[in-house]
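**Backbone description:**
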Amino acid sequence: MRSNRIAERFESAAPHPPADQWYARITASRAGATSLGKALGLLTAVAIALIALNLYAPAPPTMLERVFASAIIASLALPVWLWMSGADRTIPFMPFLTLIFTYYFALPVFLLRRYAAALFRQPVAEHFITLALGYSLLGLYCMFAGYYGPARWLFAPMLPRFNLRWRNERVVRLVALTLGFGGLFMSSSHVLASVGLAQISAYAADLSMVGICTLVALQLSGRLDRITSAFVWGFLIPVRIAIGLGTGSATNGLIVGVAIAMMFASVRRSIPWKTLLLGTIVAVFVLRPAEMPYRAATWGGRLSDAGAIAKVRLYGDIVYRITIGGAVDPQVLIEFGSTRLAQFTVFGEVIADTPAQVPFWGGESYYPMLFKLIPRFIMPDKPEEISGQTFGHRYALISPGNTGTSINLPQIVELYANFGLTGVIAGMFIFGLICRLLIEMYVHPGMGLGALVGGVYVSSKLLDVGSAA
């Protein structure tokens, strides 16, 4: 009895984290989420998708290529189940990251007719495609090990924690509307770009996304009136996506949709699969093919000096012509979109040439990261991050005289180009660990709505595994 009283006294004296409805909301699994029916439903959906893809595959892939690509897609079930069951008590970052990873390194295996890094290049040798898929699968599970494994417990006690519990929701709504609309206005300002302040325009676009994520979280939790909700979904979100697409990079528009989908999944504890499927079809087979003619007209073309409205109108016109207008055959859209999406072919090219023709980089591409936080006005000659140009020229993916085209360098490919297979294993583990530690800085008891918004915003930026680290 005495020992029990002493234990209770110590327990009452220990600091308890403050109650936080937002933390409870995003970490508590939904009723029935771990039922046998849910598990069977998830496995059945994955099995049907894999059977359909393997039956369709026009290439056709070899047996090993089918196994590796199918295993990458099937791996999506692991982070989804861990998050749905509540074992992963964070926002659904890893399910989204794994989904995007499958888009780049597995799905195009079953959609392409030939495995080439570009439309007019020779196909990559079968041996190197097999290696690329095998290394991609290995790298994915190394990332899982870093994200879910025990290593994060060693560093978690040393992490700073963001406690952003905004109590006055009227002030929160006002600030969010100001950020959302004000950032939207500044990011679409043609004047800022014309006077050399394009970076401010980019920051304004990010502030707009922070405001939108805040408003979406409030609306999903029933804390936004109907008029404001209609303004958010009917004006702010569509216009922000349109402005992002108007930059000529579909990623700048799609990142908004991804952040909103992650916020929806976090607050409602449910991943919107139908919306993600529809968004994938539109993004890959409509918006990405429309980028090429749009860039030709606006990046140094006849509309290079046009305003944001004119550029958005042009983008819409191109989308209409290649879809409803019937200017492009649907099969061509699938082939073109899948080629732009596929990164396993680029990985195969790099494996074939490194180190046979191109020496290992030895960390060269990571060097500019050491100076990233130093403003250029303090260090005018700080190294620039131009991996897209360096990578494209080094592997002859773009012509020597081409200084305007940038080739995406996926993170797992960058690891291999620098350090080989050892870099893939160690680097993907470290990437997974870093992502988990960053998220835990935001998601914890006492976090508040501000930390939820910050966590979703930062996580949406980390999802771009198709670009250099």
Notes: The two ends are 57 Å apart (CA to CA).
